[in-house]
Structure formats: C-alpha cells, structure tokens
Give the backbone structure.
Amino acid sequence: MRQLQLQTDKMLAHVKDGVGWITFNQPNKRNAVSFAMWQAIPQIIIDFASSDDVRVVVMRGAGDKAFVSGADISEFEEVRNTPEQIVVYEKATSAANAALITLDKPLIAMIRGFCIGGGMAIALSADLRITADDGEFGVPAAKLGLGYGYGGIKELMNIVGPSFAKEIFFTGGRFSASDAETMGLVNRVVPVDDLESSVTALAKTIADNAPMTVKAAKAAVNEGTKNPDERDLDSVAAMVEACFNSEDYKEGRRSFMEKRKPQFQGR
C-alpha cells in the first residue's frame, strides 16, 4: 500500500491493488470540507492521474455519518471573511472541483449518510455513485437564499434530467437513498454492511480491465454530455484508434484464445 503525504490530516489518500482511495477525514463535522481539504484535493488527483499504479479512484467519507455534508462553514469567519479571502477561497474550491471533473480515470463516490450541498456537488463529479441505504441527498440552496450557478445545475441535470433537477432545487429538501436511485442520482443502493465490499469489488473489476479502453469510454460519454458545438470527437476517435494499436489489444486477443484472465498494462 502506498500512502500519500499531505499538508493536512483531514484528507487521507492511499493506493492499494490498483485503486486510489480518497477519504474526507473530518467525521466530527460530518466531513465538511475545510479550506485545507479543498487545497489537498488537486494534489491527490495530480498524483493519482499520473501514477501507473492507479487504475480507478474511490472517494469516501470517514466514519458512519456522512460522505460530505458540504463546506466547513465554521471556519468562514477566519478564511472567507474579506473580499481578498473570498477570492482565494473560491480559487481553491474551483481548482479542487476542476481536478475531480477532469480526472481521466474512473472516479467512484462511495456514499454513507449525509451527501448534502457541496457534498452532493463532489459526488456529482464522480462517474459512478454507490450509496448505502442510509444515504441522504439534497441541495438546500433555496432554504438559504443562495444562488446556484448554471454549471452545477447543468451537471445535476445531465444525470437526473430536468424534472428531478427542478424538484431537488425547488424544494431544497432531503431525499433518501431510494429516492436517489429512482432519480438516477446513484447507480445503486446497497445495505450499509455491504457498502465497502461492493465498492471494492466494483473498483477491482474496473482496475482489471484495459485502462485505455476505459479511458476512451469515459471521454466519449463526457463529450456526449456537452453541447454539440463544444464536443471534441476527434480526440475520442484518436483514443479509440490508440486502443486498437495497443499492446493491451493484443493481450486481450491472446488471453481470449488461451482462455485466461488478461493482464493489461495500459499501453
């Protein structure tokens, strides 16, 4: 197991068996994200994105109460009080969200308990969301008088569709794991006791597959969610062509003929 050294102990990151694990580690505050935690996220993603020992990434919250309950509002007086501080803080949150969204490897959100506000935005950056049956979801902006930008709403709408996106934002309410599954907000709901084993098995399945193929598929889906005039289909075509020219494609054919499990190298 490889452990990353970070500037804060409120974020943890390690690599094991091809899976990069990110833990939001502030359980006493239901894993609310502090300024230092926002700053640590790009560092983790840069390492995982560039490391051959990482095939897939999983995000989780420490403890049993929350995935992420939003931003750590308790520190706003100290770190988000002046106009200058607000600029620095927003730059950190933007960099963290951009790092998660632009990661070209599969990203899974493993959700227990509260997944609220900024926590739901973090979960939406994942490719797959698996929740325990105690998951609670919501964006309480309408109950706080907050404006919510187009980008965040578009991301949610891409996943659940216009009607459910409106329900989530209009009501500002809490939605159960079952509600989230009905909306398509999560891929599946599993019993609390099965959450870690289910996500680990899913991550291992993805990690054992051909990395270039998985990367090309993620790119194709992501381009498909963009407006037609913004899509870079040439880059997707080039990635698909690279798959056919790869050693992994040769290995896939050989392993099929030899009736054995393929050993993909990502090249």
